[in-house]
Amino acid sequence: MESVRLGRDGPRVSAIGIGMWQAGGDAWGKDVRDKDSIAAMRRGVELGMNLVDTAEVYGSGHSEEVVGKATKEVGREAVFVATKVAGHHGRDRDVERACRGSLSRLGLREIDLYQVHWPDPWDQVPLRETMKALERLERRGLIRHIGVSNFAVRDLEAARSYLSRTALVSNQVRYNLFQREIESEVLPYCKREGIGILAWSPLGKGILTGKYAASKRPKDRVRSEEDLFRPENLRRAAPLVTLLRRVAKAHGKTPAQVALAWLRSRPIVVPIPGVKRSSQTEENAGAAGWTLTNPERNLLDRVSAAVRLDTF
Predict the structure, then answer these.
(1) Which of 130, 201, 257, 312 could be 253's S-S partner, Cβ–Cβ 3.0 to 4.6 Å?
(2) C-alpha gyration radius of the chain
(3) What is the CA angle 244-245-249, rounded to 5?
C-alpha cells in the first residue's frame, strides 16, 4: 500500500489506517473478540497498513491492550501507533500519568502520535496547560508527534499557539459522504496550514457499506441509537448507497471501497475505518491503489450533498 505524509512536515503513514475502537469490547456487538481484532490488525500490517488508531477511553483501555498484543506479534517497526489522551485528563498533572498508562497497555516505550481526544467542556482545563504538557512529553521522548481530535478551527489555532517547538501534525475528525461538516471551515484551514486529517467514521459507522436498510438496522450499543440509522435516514440515504453500488460495479469494488476512495481523493485526508475481523481489513485495503474518475467524484459529491438527514 502507498504511504502518504500526515500534514505538511509530519510522518509518513499508510494511505488507509486501521481503527481499533471496536476492539474496546462488546459495545460494537457481541461478535467482537480479541483474537479477531488482533488477526484484523495483523492482516492489515501484511497488506501494508501501518497506521493503527486507538484511545485510552476505548473500552477503558482494553483497545490499547489489544493493540499492544497485536503489536508484539507483528513487531514494533511494522506499526505507527496513534492513541489519545481523554479530555478529562488534560490537566498538567494528569497528562503524563495518562500517557504512561497508555504506554504500559500498549507495551511501548514511545507513542508515535499522541492526540487530545476532545476539548473537555466540563473541567474547563486551559488548553495551554494540556498542550504544554504534551510538548514536554515529546521533549522527553515519550511521544513522537502531537495531534488533536474533534477540534474546531478556533481550538486548532489556540492549540498551535501554545506549542513553541513542535508542530501539530493532525486533527482527527468525523468525515464521510454523509457527514461533511468539516468542509466548511476545518478542512480548508487544515489544508492551508499543513495539518493532516484523520477521518474517523469514514464509512458512517457502516451505513455506506450498503449492509443496512430501514428494515435492517444494527443492534449494538454504539449504533442502535445513532441518528444515521433511524429508518427515515436510511431511506433518505438509499440514493447515495445505490450510486456507490453502481460506481463499485464499474471498478470491480465494493460500496465501502468507493466511499473510502472518495475520501482518499482529498489530498490531506487519511481514512481510519474500524475493523472487527480480517475480512474487513482486506476490504478496506482494497480502497487503495486506484482512483475514482473526476466525473465519478463529482457525481458522488452532488448526490451526497443533496441528502438531507434528520438529526438532533
Answers:
(1) 257
(2) 19
(3) 115
What is the tens place of the pLDDT at every residue in 216-272?
Answer: 888 888 888 888 889 999 999 999 999 999 999 999 999 999 999 999 999 899 999
Cell output for 270:
487519511
Phi, psi of 66 (to 5 degrees): -65, -45
Instruction: Kindly report, residue by residue over 267-302, the tens digit of the pLDDT.
Output: 899 999 999 999 999 999 999 999 999 999 999 999
What is the amino acid identity at position 275?
V
Residues with a catalytic annotation lie at 58
How far apart are alpha carbons 197 and 188 in whole angstroms?
Answer: 11
**Is 218 within 8 Å of 263 (Cβ atoms)?**
no
Domains plus CATH for the chain?
3-206+255-289 (3.20.20.100)
* Residue 206 φ/ψ, nearest 5 degrees: 110, -15
Among 226, 198, 232, CA closest to 114: 198
Three-class DSSP labels, the chain? CCEEECCCCCCEEECCCEECHHHHCHHHCCCCCHHHHHHHHHHHHHCCCCEEECCCCHHHHHHHHHHHHHHHHHCHHHCEEEEEECHHHCCHHHHHHHHHHHHHHHCCCCEEEEEECCCCCCCCCCHHHHHHHHHHHHHCCCEEEEEEECCCHHHHHHHHHCCCCCCEEEEEEECCCCCCHHHCCHHHHHHHHCCEEEEECCCHHHHHHCCCECCECCCCHHHHCCHHHCHHHHHHHHHHHHHHHHHHHHHCCCHHHHHHHHHHCCCCEEECCECCCHHHHHHHHCCCCCCCCHHHHHHHHHHHHHCCCCCC
CB contact at 8 A, 53 and 272: yes
User: Is pLDDT at 312 greater than 70 in this prediction?
Assistant: no
Its pTM stands at 0.95
> Is the distance from CB of 299 to CB of 305 less than 8 angstroms?
no
